Amino acid sequence: AGADTVKRAVELDLASRFQESLVCYQEGIDLLLQVVKATKDEAKKQRFRQKISEYMTRAEDIKKHIEKEKQDGKYHKQIRIEENATGFGYEKLFQEYLTEIVSEVWVEDPYIRHVHQLYNFLRFCEMLVKGPCKVKTIHLLTSYDEGSGRNQQMSGLEEIQQSLRNYGVTLNIAFSSSIHDREIRFNNGWMIKIGRGLDYFKKPQGRFSIGYCDFDLRPCHETTVDVFHTKHTKKM
C-alpha cells in the first residue's frame, strides 16, 4: 500500500498537481515507516530508509513550492468532493483561510432562494461569527426567487441581516438577474469557487436523522472546489 501511494504521489508530482502529490507523499511515507518497523532484514530496512529519505526531501521541496505560490498569489488548490462523501462541512473548506485579519466577505451565489439554501447561508454566516476572523461586513449577491417563494426569500434574508446586526456584522444584499458564477472572497486575498455554491449538501433522510444538524455528517453532491489567492480582491 505504501509503494502504491508513493507511486501515485510521483505521478501527481510529474503532472504538477503538487497539493495532491504532497498528501500522497505524506501518506506513503507513513505507510513505509510502518513497514520498516516490521522488517527484520537489515538490508531491506536500509533500502526502505534510503527511499523514505528521498521522498521526504521531495515532500519538503513541494511544501516550499506551495508556500512560495501562496506568497506570490499564484496558489491554486482543488478539492474534489465525491458523490455521497461526508466530512465536508463549511469549516472544513473555509476555516484554513479565515485568518484573524479577515473583516470583509463577498458571497456571489445565485441560489440563496429556497428555505434550505437560506439555512445554508445562515450556517455560513454562523461560521464567520464564531471566528477566529473578525468579520464586520458580508456582501451577498444572489438572484430573486422567480416563483411564489420571493416573499419567503426576502423575509428570510432580512431576518439573517437583523440577526447579524446583533453581532456587529453588516449584511449588504444585492440581486442580479444575470448572475451565474459562484464564488466566495475574503479581504485577505483568498477566493473559493465551489461548482454548486453553498448548496452542495444532499437533503437529509429525515428531520431526526444523523447529518441533519451537523453538516460534516451530511452526504454531499459531487462537486469541485477551487481555492485561489489573489493580491487584489475585487469588490462587488
From TrEMBL:
Record-linked CDD domains: MIT_1, MIT_C
All residue ranges annotated as the MIT domain in the record: 1-71
Pfam families: MIT, MIT_C
Domain of life assignment: Eukaryota
InterPro entries xrefs: MIT_dom, MIT_dom_sf, MIT_domain_contain_protein1, MITD1_C, MITD1_C_sf, MITD1_N
Annotated SMART domains: MIT
PANTHER family xrefs: MIT DOMAIN-CONTAINING PROTEIN 1 (PTHR21222)
Name of this protein: MITD1 protein
